[in-house]
């Protein structure tokens, strides 16, 4: 299995390179940079290969139409390589949107000792943006073949797919508190204290998904129409269309399926 080690600078003597050209939010991967003058960001080492994000200027397309978005890239490469491409997109977008200081408006420069942009005027540091978001699978009933899982279809979903409940963490609350609040807000039920299951970087555009399991405690489903089109309790043998393997939502659902 491929192994990736993030770093700020490449080790000496590296001879193999991978350049992930970020064209808007699409990517094109090559063994050389299309233009030496375009901004690059070192990402880390992937099995002895130095990986770089190339920030392609607007209007340029070194792929001649061959670049793909991250959704399309998944399945064409390994999970590790896909995550590296996602890192490239996130860092390129961060660099594009932090060229000037948010406090005094002066230009920023890349820091030498960490992954940050430093204001040349007031010294304010800006780090890559991450938006923590919880995602949870809510179950109902005793463990076993008759246990139910709550799946919902969000207003922004493509097609009739159903998934776990998710939402962003608000200032001043813990991850567990955000799970309980989001479930209450989106479908109107009360749940138990959540248990952590895993996490996943989600570069659409800069989320960090933190996965949980929790149990129904009380209440009937009452969807918030601004967020949820429909939500239902499902048995394992009657699931609707669910997310692809790219997502932590699918991993949460698959883990529950294997329990039964």
Structure explained in plain terms:
The structure is a single chain. This protein has 260 residues and is of the alpha+beta class. The chain has 3 domains: 4-97, no CATH class; 98-128, no CATH class; 131-259, Nucleoside Triphosphate Pyrophosphohydrolase (Alpha-Beta Complex), CATH 3.90.79.10. The chain is 18% helix and 33% strand. It is built from 4 helices and 15 strands. Strands 9, 10, 11, 12, 13, 14 and 15 form a 7-stranded mixed sheet that branches. A 5-stranded mixed sheet has the order 1-4-5-2-3, covered by helices on one side. Strands 6-7-8 form a 3-stranded antiparallel sheet, with no helix packed on it. β6 and β7 form a beta hairpin. The longest helix has 19 residues, at 79-97. It is globular. The mean pLDDT is 95.
Brief account:
The protein is an alpha+beta fold and 260 residues long.
Biggest beta sheet summary: 7 strands, mixed
The CATH C-level class name of the largest domain: Alpha Beta
The tally of structural domains comes to 3
Uncertain stretches? none
Please tell me the CATH architecture of the largest domain by its name: Alpha-Beta Complex
Shape, principal axes of CA atoms: globular
Portion of residues in helices?
10-25%
Distinct helical segment count:
4
Main features:
seven-stranded mixed β-sheet; single chain; five-stranded mixed β-sheet; 15 strands; NUDIX_hydrolase-like_dom_sf; Nucleoside Triphosphate Pyrophosphohydrolase; EC 3.6.1.22; NAD; 260 residues; metal ion binding
